[in-house]
Amino acid sequence: MDVKVFHYLIDALKVAGCSIYEDNIPVLYNSLIRLQSENHFNSVYLWGRIETLSNDYYIAYGHQKDPIENRIFFYTQNLLEWDIMPTDWSILETDLVRRIKTKLYGNPRYLETIDNSNKKSQETTEYPIAPSVVMKYDDYVESGEEDVQNIENITFNDVISINEADEIMETESFDDPSNLKSSIKEEDRLAITVQMIDNECHIVPRGYFYKLPNGNIIKAPYFKGLDYSEIGNEQNFLHINPQYCRPKGPTNDVRPDYNGSIDFLESIDKDIPKGCWTSRILSNRYFIIHSLLWPGAVFFQDMNTGIHGYFYNGYGLKNLDLPFMI
Amino acid sequence: MFIFQNPIQPITYFEYYSENIKMLYQKTQPDPDLNFFNNIDIDIFNKILEIYKDTMFNVREHKISSISYEYEVEAEYDDTQHNEDVNEINVQDLSKINYMFNKAGCGLTNDEAHLIGITMDQMSQLEKFKSIRYWGKIIGLKRNYYILECDWKNKELEYKLRLLNLVFNTNKNKVQHEYDDENENENQEDVELEKYILSEEENGFFSKTTLSAPIKKNINEESEYLFDSIKSEVCSLLPTELDNDDYLSHEIFGFGANKKSYFVTNQLNDSWIELPLLKPHHIIQSRNIKRYFTGNLESPVESYPLFQGLEKHYLRAQIARITAATQISPRDYFVLNYNSNLYKWRKLNTFQTKAMSHKWIHEYIVNSDYNPLSVYDLLEPNNWVHHTPLISEKGVTKAWSNIIESEGDLQQNSEKIELNCKIKVNSEMGRGDGDYLDIFGDLSHDAYADEMPPWKFELTNRFDHTITYATVRSNLWPGAYAVARENLLDYTYHGWGLKWNAFSFTVQPLSGYQPSDPYRFDSGMTAEIKDPTRDDELRYLAIVNKRKEDRARMKIGVLQPFSAADEDEERILNQHDYD
């Protein structure tokens, strides 16, 4: 959600069911403007709020030139001081984050430990804990995808990026955490979670980003939002994911009105599982897409003005039960 | 496109502009203003305008009626003083409350708040409800549900129960069930009586509504819905109800978890539909499943641990669970209403009267001499209590299961029980604060969900503590909020209607061992039998051949899918024969 249109979208947030404390809005607005000026950002976005057990995290990002690749994320708890989010982490930690199913504590220095020896004992109980489910689920997804279409790039559900997928191969040899008690700082966990959500759920309408012939990506200056004929089609919503920005070879399943300069991102219609996005027009004005995979991630557009935004307001937990729920 | 007369950064964005201009020549782009107008559903705006217009007239009427009403009250004050003070209707002031909700981040937009406020106002003029409040909103996949929570007046309840009896009795007579025991005559008398009452009431009802018919069109529809829902409910559910012995019978209208009825709508300008009564098995089954709401009340709930009902039943069950778990108030904010005990229930059957006389257990009113806690005190879980009865494992409130038990135990000792009850009641009265009841339980006793505290207490404004509100958010039911400050309190729900699980949802595996192949130990299969004679074989072959011919004929006639199982069976039989 661009800070410039922050105030216009408050009602949309309310309709989408993910509004924040109203008293915080002016504070956030001012501190974000300051963030922008201090870091010389072209624009600053409020990304979302992650609810915790004590103080919530507010997440923002800004970018200077490239609106997709060079985004820098910040988080805050007191709404005034923005801290930069850690950006590099090991594959081991990503794996850990996937496994943790509890809510965040609201203290960036809290050390979350996960006992791996625990895992086996718990698996035999009636409720298998998350990891086993994740694995099964991922396997299923991957195999399903390969059967249907031989896409050479990664499956969408694979949260980790391509280059990390290579790393998995390398690290597998020593990454045998069966009797390793591992821990992760909450700050890192937050960063990884935000990254995961952003990769999977951050969407923009088609045509919002424009790729110039020299490869620079810009925000289209006269983009007016999607109109009523376009919002029904899931192909008109694209993931912002740096992985998708790379040049691809010609694929045979492109849309009929393919336009290389705006279709360089991946659309959400091939996301897995099917039906993980739900869209409608509420109160006759606001067009809203909820992501069901990450409950709380919302894209909204005011149909009257074309102002649109993306917001995440939730616990930072993936909904692994989704196949049972739709 | 005039914007390109003076584009920003023409050199950098050259390609973008050239492409846009090409597009412009290729296809005619619609005028954006017209585009907006063409796509707007004008009916909705018309409807909403109608609603606003109606309220304008309504307000006038309201004023007049209230003035005349005061005179009446003065005139017959002595009579009404004793009876019931239900003439006043407790309607939530949504615009004020919504301000509070917005502070807490669970509010509605102004449009929604106005429309709901108007609807509540109209409903209050029906004079059937004791209290009306906005319960919350549940997000569905296709549409959302707005939910109102209404408390019927005692008189209205009585009427409804009688109606129910009537339908029930007629139904019973039709089915000729064994139930019609000793008091058949009484029943018939009752029926006649009730018919009489019904017609009277209906007349009254119609006259009431025709007075203001043009204004309350919506509400008329709605009350028809009510009528329908009650009837169809009873008729359709009667047979299954009798079969299900494992579940307790549901709580009667107006008691315990069914004390309030809930009205839902997808669109605020549509009619509001009353949800069916809560059945215990719905509660129990809804605890096992986890599904999103679709937004269509009549759609079936497809889930693996079976849910016997439509989405409206599921919705009702979830509402009941959320209500029981998350409606909280500061300590001493609500007190039991002992006065409601005095109401005399007339013309109900014995069981109903008995149950309804216990209804006061869950009857709470705002404490008139509540002294407000400071906002900081409100951040302590000790200072908050549940004021709605919890729902037990059996899917009913405790009070109801007590009543059922006492009913089922000993019919002949009913006097004794009544005595006991009286004693109980007395002791409760003596205690006064009712703290051994299952309502008014402390939040600090609530169960943790896997090391996670069930509630989250927070101030809405951390910078200026003089204007802040205290919010309590439920971690178990994400989306449940309570907001309080001094004398103001309200709670709402705004979410997906799902409980948060510490463990991910897994379908329960089939329990127990499956019985092994029953034929293996069946002596009939292994015992020696006589060999078939030549005649038997011939007869058998004749049958088989005939079937084959039949099948061949069928195959020629219609192309039927080849059923491997049948063929295999036949082949085996043949082989057996020829061996």
TrEMBL record, chain A:
Q: Does the keyword Transcription regulation apply?
A: no
The alphabetized UniProt keywords are: Cell projection, Cilium, Cilium biogenesis/degradation, Cytoplasm, Cytoskeleton, Flagellum
UniProt keyword annotation of Zinc-finger present? no
N-terminal signal peptide: none
The listed locations are:
Cell projection, Kinocilium; Cytoplasm, Cytoskeleton, Flagellum axoneme
Q: Which GO terms describe its biological process?
A: axoneme assembly; cilium movement involved in cell motility; motile cilium assembly
Q: Which residues form a coiled coil?
A: none
Please give the InterPro entries that the UniProt record associates with this protein. Answer: RSP9
GO cellular-component terms in the record? Answer: axoneme; kinocilium
User: Which top-level group of life is the source organism from?
Assistant: Eukaryota
The primary site where this protein sits is: other
Similarity remark: Belongs to the flagellar radial spoke RSP9 family.
Q: What is this protein called?
A: Radial spoke head protein 9 homolog
Automatic annotation (TrEMBL), chain B:
* GO BP: axoneme assembly; cilium movement involved in cell motility
**Compartmental location:** Cytoplasm, Cytoskeleton, Cilium axoneme
- GO CC entries: radial spoke
Q: Which domain of life is it from?
A: Eukaryota
Q: Name one Pfam family in it.
A: Radial_spoke
Q: Which UniProt keywords apply?
A: Cell projection, Cilium, Cytoplasm, Cytoskeleton
Recorded protein name is Radial spokehead-like protein
Q: What is the lineage of its organism?
A: Eukaryota, Metazoa, Ecdysozoa, Arthropoda, Hexapoda
